[in-house]
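Example 9 (inverse folding). The structure is encoded as follows.
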C-alpha cells in the first residue's frame, strides 16, 4: 500500500547549522536565538522570534520527515544521482501531492528593497521551509550517507535532558541509520545553567557533540561585540561539556577584534582554547554584514577592520600559542588561507604555509587573495553567482582567470564582492 499523499506535510528544518552538518537531517527544537544581540551576527534579525517547541511538535515533524523519506523511496528517486537543483520528477511529485490535498507550504518572499548582500543571505535562510525544501533536505541527507542529525536552532542547552531523550528516541525509531546527534550551545549556559549531571544525561540520551561559537577569548572583544559571555565562562562551559563525555567543537573568528584588539584577540583566544582543549577548533574569519550593529560601528568609526594580512597574523599567533592536543580546521570560504591539521603535530607545517603568504609582495598577496576567494566560494557554494562571474569574465583567457595585468582596484573590487556574499 502506497503513502497517502494527502498526509504529506512540511517539517521545519535548521537553515543555520555548522558546515559539518550541511548533509545532516535537521529538526528544530527551538526557533531562532533568544540572545540575538551579537554585533556581528545578521541571523534572526528580520522578524524572527525565539520560541521553544513542544516535544510533541518535534515528534510530529519527525513523523512528517519519515513520510516524506518513505515517499521518495517509494517513488524511486535515486539518491546517488541527487543534485542541488530540483529534478523534474520532484516537480511531478509535488503536483501529485497538491492534487491529493497534501500541504505544500509557501515560498517565503524576500524584501526586494534590502541590500543585495542581505537578499543573497536570506535566500539561504528558510524560516518556514516548503515541501520542495524538505525534499532537497532529505535527498542531500541520504546522499551524504544518512547517518547524522543536527538539532537546532541556537543554544539547545536551555532544554532539559528528558526533552532531548524523547526527541532522540522518536528520531531513532523513524530513522534508525542515524549514528551521530549534534547541537549548537552557548558556553555560558553550559557553565551557569546546566549541571555536570545534566550534561552527562544529554550524553546518555544520545547526544554526541556540542558546537560552541566562542568567537574570541578576549574579554574586551567579547564585551564590544555584546557576546554576553566572558573568557572564563567559555573555559568553564567547554571543560564541563568535555567532562560529560561530549565532543566539543568550537568556532573562533579571526578579525573580530579589528585593528584595536588584533593582538589581544589572538593571544587571549589561544589561551582560552588551550584551557578548554576542544576536540575541534574551526576558523570563521569575520565578515561585516549589512544592517548589523558592527556595520554601524564601522561606519561611525568605533570599529576599524583588520587587514587580510593582520587576520593571517592572528591565525598564525593562535596556531603558535595553542598548547594542547586538538584539531584545527579551516572549513569556511571566509578564510583566506586553508590551514588544517592536528596540534601540536602539524604546527610547523601550518606555520610554514602561513609564512609563505606573509613573505609575498603586496601585489602577490592581492592576486593570492583573488584566487583563494574564487576557489573557496565556488567550492562552498557549488559555483559562482552571476554577478561574480560577470566581474571576472573580462579576465578569462583560454579557459582560466588571468588578472596579472588588472589594476589593483579592479582586483580588490572583485574580492570585496565575493566576501560580501560569504555566510556567517
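The amino acid assigned to each position is listed next.
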Amino acid at each position: 500500500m502506497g503513502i497517502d499523499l494527502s498526509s504529506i506535510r512540511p517539517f521545519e528544518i535548521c537553515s543555520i547549522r555548522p558546515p559539518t552538518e550541511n548533509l545532516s537531517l535537521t529538526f528544530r527544537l527551538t526557533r531562532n536565538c533568544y540572545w540575538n544581540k551579537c554585533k556581528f551576527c545578521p541571523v534572526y534579525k528580520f522578524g524572527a522570534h525565539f520560541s521553544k517547541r513542544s516535544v510533541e511538535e518535534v515528534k510530529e515533524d519527525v513523523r512528517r520527515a519519515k513520510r516524506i523519506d518513505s515517499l521518495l523511496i517509494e517513488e524511486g528517486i535515486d539518491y546517488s544521482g541527487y543534485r542541488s537543483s530540483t529534478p523534474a520528477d520532484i516537480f511531478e511529485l509535488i503536483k501529485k501531492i497538491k492534487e491529493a490535498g497534501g500541504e505544500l507550504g509557501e515560498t517565503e518572499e524576500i524584501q526586494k528593497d534590502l541590500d543585495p548582500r542581505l537578499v543573497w543571505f536570506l535566500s539561504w535562510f528558510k524560516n518556514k521551509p516548503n515541501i520542495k525544501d524538505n525534499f532537497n533536505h532529505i535527498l542531500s541527507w541520504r546522499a551524504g550517507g544518512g547517518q547524522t542529525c543536527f538539532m537546532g536552532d541556537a543554544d539547545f542547552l536551555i532544554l532539559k535532558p528528558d526533552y532531548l531523550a524523547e526527541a532522540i528516541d522518536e528520531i531513532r525509531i523513524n530513522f534508525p541509520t542515524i549514528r551521530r546527534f549534534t547541537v549548537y550551545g552557548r558556553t555560558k549556559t553550559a557553565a551557569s545553567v546546566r549541571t555536570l549531571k545534566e550534561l552527562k544525561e544529554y550524553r546518555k540520551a544520545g547526544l554526541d557533540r556540542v558546537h560552541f561559537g566562542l568567537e574570541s577569548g578576549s574579554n574586551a572583544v567579547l564585551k564590544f561585540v555584546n557576546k554576553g559571555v566572558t573568557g572564563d565562562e567559555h573555559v568553564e562551559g567547554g571543560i564541563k561539556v568535555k567532562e560529560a563525555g561530549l565532543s566539543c567543537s568550537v568556532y573562533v573568528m579571526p578579525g573580530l577584534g579589528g585593528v584595536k584588539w588584533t593582538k589581544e584577540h589572538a593571544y587571549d583566544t589561544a589561551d582560552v582554547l588551550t584551557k578548554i582543549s576542544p576536540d575541534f577548533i574551526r576558523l570563521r574569519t569575520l565578515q561585516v554584514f549589512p544592517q548589523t550593529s558592527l556595520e554601524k560601528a564601522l561606519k561611525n568609526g568605533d570599529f576599524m577592520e583588520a587587514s587580510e594580512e593582520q587576520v593571517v597574523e592572528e591565525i598564525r599567533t593562535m596556531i603558535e600559542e595553542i598548547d594542547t592536543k586538538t584539531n584545527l580546521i579551516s572549513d569556511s570560504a571566509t578564510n583566506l588561507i586553508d590551514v588544517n591539521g592536528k596540534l601540536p603535530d602539524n604546527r610547523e607545517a601550518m606555520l610554514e604555509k602561513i609564512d609563505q603568504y606573509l613573505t609575498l609582495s603586496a601585489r602577490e598577496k592581492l592576486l593570492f587573495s583573488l584566487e583563494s576567494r574564487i576557489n573557496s566560494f565556488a567550492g562552498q557554494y557549488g559555483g559562482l553567482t552571476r554577478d561574480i562571474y560577470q566581474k571576472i569574465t573580462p579576465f578569462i583567457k583560454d579557459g582560466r582567470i588571468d588578472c596579472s595585468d588588472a589594476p589593483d582596484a579592479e582586483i580588490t573590487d572583485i574580492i570585496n564582492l565575493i566576501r560580501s556574499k560569504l555566510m556567517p
